């Protein structure tokens, strides 16, 4: 069918009829639906000589890009360089394609080539080139283009102005973006101008200013906010935790003409409600979205994770799989984070293999999530294997690995890894990196190194410590029994100490038996949290450790009078891929009888041990709490598979009169006497001054 127009055009050409080049492009280029047809049209244009016409060649070039028949752009690029003296339309076509592609740098290179060839840019050129600058964060090039817009007289164009706002914001110069925005006359600003300015503030984490601009838009009355505007405002509300304002914007959504709860708006509402702590409202929005996509599922899973509802997050992920939705990299990274926080090592391994089986892109974000998951679940060797397999780890990779080693007690390895990172020029540690370093010093007892790294934050890396860093330093000094120094450190803080810092000091006082300072720290906590039970419970434990039972009764009586109740604690253990949850005084588990039977056997063996284990744990009559952490470990011991499991590193705290070094070798789930598994290697230190718990005996190794 296509040959007839070709024959007709050729005959008319031979007969001297001059067919319009414009009619050729419009009649043929706009009515084909197959790549072969485009190739025939292009071949005819070249053979007949009409490809030399700038309009025809530019139109063919535009269609080669816009219809994506050549995804790598190699064909279209070759076609472009066959055009003699390409006009600005041809240049804009190739700018447009590359600015949206995976190669935005080509846009900059081709723009420089166009200037060298003497072709002047127009008002359509700059938005494409500025978009490439925004994606590459090229601030200096954006400034150069800004000057060029003034030179070529296209600066007043609203599309050019909007592109400048986005380019400056993406390059970290949001103040310049605001200056450009303010220079744009109010009557010329469109909704894209406002959206670009709001988005710029969001990118620079200035959420209050983003909402201020949003308020200015509403006050101006024109233009009308669109979906992008409202979604950006919802994002700012979520970041700031402004639930009431978020609800008002939600209401504005509902009253906006043409509003539909699509996946774009629905995902934003889920994210806002989740970040504001209203996960139930987020779930209601999720259930109302008619045609959910993977973004909606990921947003809801992330919402559960942010609220520490890890069980619900995993259940929703399984529901998503049953519904036939294929997970993407963002979903995988989110679920891996949940597995790490929940300690679900077997599930995390399954997700790892799921990615490999289904060809999910293992980008750097997913690999960082894998490092974090394996580290939090105790498998640091696998985490190190993934880390060393990265071609170019970023600061998040280094931080995840350093923190993972620190939390598993491998302090020397964590500090050595940081020293390797310091030798690199393209990676610079951030505040979270130093938080992992200080935790490593805490676990290793490296007081001098901890002080050195704390000072290095400000003196070498120009980083400002926050409340978490100060808390780590108090914990470090407290663990080393430098309680006086810890108190002096707190008094000299440039910020107001929070309950976490005072609680760290209280823990240290409990461990080292400093009653007077413990009372002082508990009083500070009660001033900050008068209705919370934490300080009173810890102080009660301090009195109990010193056998001051009268004071224990007094503290608990005061709690009863003020109607302050201790919230039940909760712990998890994973057995054969299933996570079991235990609460204080919880007898709902189907294996409760077996757990307590094994627990009684452990206590009996420890009481009869000649190795100095003392009398096991003591349950006073007035103590209404069960050692649920011990129940967790006991359940793991009782239901071990019939294999020998050695723990490479586990700190076990136990109420004994002396510190011992021993090794655990648990076989067939059968409890041996302590002397039966004492050996020289794989030692585990028992700290006599800590609580009587066997927590973490198997929590990091239950599935290895």
Please describe what this structure looks like.
The chain is mainly α and about 700 residues long. It contains 35 helices and seven strands. The strands form three sheets. The chain has a three-stranded mixed β-sheet with strand order 4-7-5, with no helix packed on it. The chain has a two-stranded antiparallel ribbon with strand order 1-2. The protein has a two-stranded antiparallel ribbon with strand order 3-6. Helix 7 (about 105-115) packs across helix 8 (about 125-135) and helix 14 (about 225-240) runs parallel beside helix 16 (about 265-275). Residues about 1-20, about 610-630 and about 640-704 have low confidence and may be disordered.
Draw up the topology in text.
Blueprint: H1 3-14, H2 21-29, H3 35-48, H4 54-66, H5 74-80, H6 88-100, H7 104-116, H8 125-136, H9 139-151, H10 158-170, H11 174-183, H12 191-203, H13 207-220, H14 227-240, H15 243-255, H16 263-275, H17 279-288, H18 294-306, H19 310-322, H20 329-342, H21 345-358, H22 364-376, H23 380-388, H24 395-407, H25 411-422, H26 431-444, H27 447-459, H28 467-479, H29 483-491, H30 499-512, H31 515-528, H32 534-545, H33 549-561, E1 570-575, E2 578-583, H34 592-607, H35 628-638, E3 645-646, E4 652-653, E5 660-662, E6 665-666, E7 684-687
Parallel strand pairs: 4-7
Antiparallel strand pairs: 1-2, 3-6, 5-7
Helix pairs in contact: 2-4, 4-5, 4-6, 6-7, 6-8, 7-8, 8-9, 8-10, 9-10, 10-11, 10-12, 11-12, 12-13, 12-14, 13-14, 14-15, 14-16, 16-17, 16-18, 17-18, 18-19, 18-20, 19-20, 20-21, 20-22, 22-23, 22-24, 23-24, 24-25, 24-26, 25-26, 26-27, 26-28, 27-28, 28-29, 28-30, 29-30, 30-31, 30-32, 31-32, ...
């Amino acid at each position: 069918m296509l040959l007839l127009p070709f024959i007709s055009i050729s005959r008319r050409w031979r007969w001297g009829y001059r067919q319009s080049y414009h009619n050729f492009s419009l009649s043929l280029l706009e009515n084909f639906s197959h790549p072969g047809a485009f190739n025939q049209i292009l071949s005819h244009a070249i053979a007949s000589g009409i490809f030399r016409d700038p309009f025809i060649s530019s139109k063919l070039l535009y269609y080669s890009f816009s219809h994506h028949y050549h995804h790598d752009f190699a064909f279209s690029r070759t076609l472009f360089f066959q055009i003699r003296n390409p006009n600005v339309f041809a240049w804009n076509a190739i700018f447009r394609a590359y600015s949206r592609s995976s190669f935005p740098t080509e846009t900059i290179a081709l723009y420089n080539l166009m200037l060298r060839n003497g072709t002047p840019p127009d008002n359509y050129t700059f938005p494409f080139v500025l978009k490439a600058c925004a994606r590459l964060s090229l601030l200096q090039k954006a400034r150069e283009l800004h000057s060029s817009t003034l030179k070529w007289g296209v600066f007043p164009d609203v599309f050019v102005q909007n592109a400048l706002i986005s380019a400056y914001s993406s390059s970290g110069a949001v103040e310049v973006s605001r200056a450009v925005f303010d220079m744009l006359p109010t009557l010329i600003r469109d909704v894209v101008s406002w959206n670009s300015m709001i988005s710029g503030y969001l990118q620079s984490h200035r959420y209050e200013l983003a909402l201020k601009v949003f308020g200015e838009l509403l006050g101006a009355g024109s233009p009308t906010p669109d979906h992008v505007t409202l979604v950006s405002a919802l994002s700012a509300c979520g970041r700031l935790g402004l639930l009431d304002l978020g609800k008002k914007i939600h209401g504005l959504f509902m009253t906006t003409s043409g509003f539909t709860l699509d996946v774009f708006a629905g995902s934003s509402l889920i994210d806002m409600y989740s970040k504001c702590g209203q996960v139930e409202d987020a779930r209601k929005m999720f259930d109302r979205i008619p045609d959910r996509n993977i973004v909606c599922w990921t947003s809801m899973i992330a919402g559960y994770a942010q609220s520490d509802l890890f069980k619900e997050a995993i259940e929703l992920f399984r529901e998503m799989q049953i519904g036939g939705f294929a997970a993407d990299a963002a979903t995988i990274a989110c679920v891996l984070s949940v597995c790490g926080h929940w300690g679900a090592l077997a599930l995390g391994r399954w997700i790892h293999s799921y990615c490999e089986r289904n060809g999910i892109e293992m980008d750097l974000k997913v690999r960082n999530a894998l490092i974090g998951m394996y580290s939090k679940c105790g498998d640091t060797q696998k985490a190190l294997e993934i880390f060393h397999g990265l071609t170019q780890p970023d600061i998040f990779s280094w931080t995840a690995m350093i923190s993972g080693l620190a939390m598993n007690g491998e302090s020397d390895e964590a500090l050595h890894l940081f020293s390797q990172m310091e030798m690199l020029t393209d990676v610079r540690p951030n505040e979270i990196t130093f938080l992992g370093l200080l935790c490593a010093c805490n676990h290793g007892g490296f007081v001098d190194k901890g002080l050195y790294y704390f000072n290095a934050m400000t003196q070498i890396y120009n980083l400002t410590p926050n409340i978490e860093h100060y808390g780590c330093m108090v914990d470090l000094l407290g663990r080393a029994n430098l309680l006086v120094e810890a108190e002096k450190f707190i008094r000299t803080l440039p910020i107001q100490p929070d309950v976490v810092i005072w609680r760290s000091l209280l823990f240290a006082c409990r461990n080292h038996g400093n009653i007077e300072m413990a009372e002082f720290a508990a009083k500070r906590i009660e001033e900050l949290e008068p209705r919370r039970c934490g300080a009173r419970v810890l102080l009660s434990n301090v009195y109990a450790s010193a056998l001051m039972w009268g004071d224990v009764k007094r503290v608990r009586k005061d709690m009863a009078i003020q109607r302050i109740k201790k919230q039940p604690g909760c712990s998890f253990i994973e057995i054969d891929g299933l996570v079991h949850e235990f609460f204080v005084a919880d007898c709902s588990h189907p294996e409760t009888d077996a757990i307590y039977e094994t627990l009684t056997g452990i206590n009996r063996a420890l009481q009869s041990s000649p190795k100095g284990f003392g009398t096991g744990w003591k349950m006073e009559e007035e103590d209404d709490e069960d050692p649920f952490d011990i129940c967790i470990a006991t359940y793991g011991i009782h239901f071990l598979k019939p294999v020998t499991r050695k723990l490479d590193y586990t700190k076990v705290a136990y109420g004994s009169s002396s510190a011992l070094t021993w090794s655990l070798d648990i076989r067939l789930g059968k409890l041996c006497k302590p002397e039966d598994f004492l050996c020289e290697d794989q030692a585990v230190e028992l700290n006599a001054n800590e609580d009587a718990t066997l927590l973490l005996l198997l929590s990091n190794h239950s599935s290895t």
